[in-house]
Automatic annotation (TrEMBL):
<dbReference type="InterPro" id="IPR001816">
    <property type="entry name" value="Transl_elong_EFTs/EF1B"/>
</dbReference>
<feature type="domain" description="Translation elongation factor EFTs/EF1B dimerisation">
    <location>
        <begin position="57"/>
        <end position="198"/>
    </location>
</feature>
<protein>
    <submittedName>
        <fullName>Elongation factor Ts</fullName>
    </submittedName>
</protein>
<comment type="similarity">
    <text>Belongs to the EF-Ts family.</text>
</comment>
<comment type="function">
    <text>Associates with the EF-Tu.GDP complex and induces the exchange of GDP to GTP. It remains bound to the aminoacyl-tRNA.EF-Tu.GTP complex up to the GTP hydrolysis stage on the ribosome.</text>
</comment>
<dbReference type="Pfam" id="PF00889">
    <property type="entry name" value="EF_TS"/>
</dbReference>
<dbReference type="InterPro" id="IPR036402">
    <property type="entry name" value="EF-Ts_dimer_sf"/>
</dbReference>
<keyword id="KW-0648">Protein biosynthesis</keyword>
<dbReference type="GO" id="GO:0005739">
    <property type="term" value="C:mitochondrion"/>
</dbReference>
<keyword id="KW-0251">Elongation factor</keyword>
<dbReference type="GO" id="GO:0070125">
    <property type="term" value="P:mitochondrial translational elongation"/>
</dbReference>
<dbReference type="InterPro" id="IPR014039">
    <property type="entry name" value="Transl_elong_EFTs/EF1B_dimer"/>
</dbReference>
<dbReference type="InterPro" id="IPR009060">
    <property type="entry name" value="UBA-like_sf"/>
</dbReference>
<dbReference type="GO" id="GO:0003746">
    <property type="term" value="F:translation elongation factor activity"/>
</dbReference>
Amino acid sequence: ITISPLAIKELRAETGAGIMACKAALREANGDAQAASEALRKKGLASAEKKAGRAAAEGVIGAYIHSGNRTGVMVEVNCESDFVARGEAFSELVENIALQLVASGSVQYVSVADIPEEVRRREAEIEAAKEDLASKPEAIRSKIVAGRVDKLLTQQTLLHQTFIRDPTKTVEDVVKEHVSKLGENIQIRRFARFNLGEGLEKKTSDFAAEVAAQTGGKA
């Protein structure tokens, strides 16, 4: 089958893969661009897994302040070299992750591996005590509890969130795509979220009483 330069160009623009890789993928897929794209993505994810064990000590700390200056986040994203850290693609990734965190208020952890065992145990106890499981056999109840806890905790992790700019992907998918594209291990190390006044006890006041006190009268 003959693969046109235009088809290669379009696939390369979509996937970020090299010319020869795009050409080979299109040939293997008999010219089917979607199948070729999926094949390249799978290969990219595989290569990302291989790079995951490499040291990532460079990177940047990104920040995003939401409109109104009442909510903000800081996030540290690591890579292997200062060259990649200063690049436009990496900077854009960090910005998007920071934006994702502002939009994902329920996120408490980067990955499932970061969730303390005591949190998992506490959630399991709560689920096991629910009335709808009272009549279930122990073996079935345990499986249901485990499934519910996994689902609940996964919803609290950043990597499993639906990517805010492309709902067909997760944050983890996007990170792995950048690993493949940039050729380096990339890790989201940590983040912090700030909400104005959070944790502070707000003083409530009786305006009429304040006026009366200042004028010597009664409210």
